[in-house]
Design goal:
Length: 461
């Protein structure tokens, strides 16, 4: 059966600034927490990555050849504003050029304003734990909107705020107590609301929304206690973040869990009003896999556990703990479960709750690729993964979900959050190894030609 998508569907691809750009200290860019962090064992740092900063014109040419209708990228705060609070004209110029180059090539720019790369200068003042970071974020976003909003239709606020909270250790965050983590999380929620207010009250056109990592949660068994555990996990992992962004409220089940962890943040009356009055226009979400949990009775030795990485489970005594799902296969690289149908369940759950247009801003398979002697990459595993997920996007649209686009991770090979360059996701191969930068030449993988056809056909034929 032909699976043809709506006209104007945004077939895209994704990256983030610190994972793709390189040029970490050029043209006035200052260090972010990703630059100052010690690399994970046997993985490269973020100093050069795919060197997109110097190759963006050539890369955008390839994006055009791929047929991309949209490119989802992030803006590095540390290129735009200095530690002294000054605007850096060279940083402004880079994203101006990037946006113009995309538009000239018929590609819609979809920027995220913050993707894990907090300026080190703000981290030193307490990072998101410091309320003043809210104001710094609003000032930064105003600069972005004033400079670029005339050419941008869709803005995303914060990438995977929920993963910064639950798996912060692999995303550049220092070890913190739950209390500290959720006070910082609250500041991010308020910052996001204030930025949405600024955007909506300004002269800007376009839409703005959050970009969390959302995954449906299954109970291990039919036992009511396990079903309840799954609902509680979903409230804490997913709805805490989306209820705040879309309704401006704290999810009631999440509040109970926060109290049980003694991690309820301080919330002022003004915070509640600003959140309530300023909500999202659309929902961008990243989907890699689903989650499975079981009940976790409070008993001796039961301890809360944070997630090892973005896609692993975590445990809260009295509520839930991770369980194995015997129906799902796992990725080779990180042992993340593969669940295309879960994408359809997740998209429907989001649309049921919020009735806002949705776009997937990340979905993909990280794996080691091999460049053959004739410069080909036969990544049929990636094609399989993406095809199965695109099919579920199609079925979600048939279900009635207002899906505006799909941007798999990643447009081009880049550095993984904590597993180096060898964990590749791109349609375009970048010729470098973990530590040997080689010539950084670009090669089209088999998945490039496959996705090119999907886009040209506007679906699966
Ligand atoms: C998401 C992040 C991305 C990206 C992706 C893949 O959580 O938003 O930045 O890296 O996961 O994860 P990883 O790089 O850990 O393989």
């Amino acid at each position: 059966m032909n699976k043809i998508f709506p006209k104007d569907f945004l077939w895209g691809a994704s990256t983030s600034a610190y994972q793709v750009e390189g040029a970490w200290n050029e043209d006035g860019k200052e260090p972010s927490i990703q630059d100052t962090m010690k690399p994970f064992p046997n993985t490269t740092d973020f100093k050069v990555t795919a060197d997109f900063y110097h190759h963006y014109k050539e890369d955008i040419k390839m994006f055009k050849e791929l047929g991309l209708k949209a490119y989802r990228f992030s803006i590095a705060w540390t290129r735009i504003i200095t530690a002294q609070g000054k605007v850096n004209p060279k940083g402004i110029a880079f994203y101006n050029n990037l946006i113009n180059e995309l538009l000239e090539n018929g590609i819609e720019p979809i920027p995220t304003v913050f993707h894990f790369d907090l300026p080190q200068s703000l981290e030193e003042k307490g990072g998101w734990g410091n309320r003043q970071t809210i104001d710094r974020f609003v000032e930064y976003c105003k600069v972005l909107f004033d400079n670029y909003a005339d050419r941008v239709n869709y803005w995303q606020t914060i990438n995977e705020q929920n993963m910064l909270v639950f798996a912060g250790r692999v995303l550049g965050q220092k070890k913190k107590s739950w209390k500290e983590v959720f006070q910082g999380n609250h500041h991010m929620l308020v910052a996001q609301a204030k930025v949405m207010q600024l955007f909506h009250e300004g002269i800007y056109e376009g839409k703005i929304g959050p970009a969390p990592n959302i995954s449906c949660v299954y109970p291990k068994t039919q036992k009511p206690e396990d079903v309840l555990a799954a609902e509680n996990m979903s409230a804490f992992r997913n709805w805490l973040f989306l209820d705040a962004a879309a309704y401006g409220i704290y999810n009631h089940r999440a509040v109970q869990i926060l109290k049980s962890l003694d991690a309820m943040p301080e919330i002022t009356d003004e915070d509640r009003i600003v959140m309530r009055e300023n909500t999202a226009d659309f929902i961008a979400f990243n989907y890699y896999n689903s989650t499975t949990v079981e009940a976790f009775p409070i008993e001796a030795g039961a301890e809360a556990k944070k997630a090892a990485d973005q896609q692993s489970g975590f445990a809260i005594p009295g509520y839930f703990k991770p369980a194995k799902n015997t129906h799902l296969q796992k990725t080779k690289f990180s042992q993340w479960s593969i669940d295309p149908v879960g994408l359809r369940i997740t998209a429907n759950e989001i649309y049921d709750r919020y009735h806002l247009p949705v776009i997937i801003t990340e979905n993909g398979l990280g794996q080691e690729d091999t460049l053959t002697s004739d410069n080909k990459v036969h990544d049929d595993y990636r094609i399989d993964y993406l095809e199965q997920h695109i099919e579920q996007v199609y079925l979600s649209i048939q279900d009635g979900v207002e899906f505006i686009g799909y941007c798999p991770w990643s447009a081009i090979d880049l550095v993984s959050t904590h597993e180096g360059f060898k964990k590749r996701y791109g349609f375009i191969y970048v010729n470098r190894d973990e530590f040997d930068l080689k010539d950084l030449k670009r090669y089209k993988k088999d998945s490039f030609y496959w996705y090119q056809k999907v886009i040209a056909d506007n679906g699966l034929k």
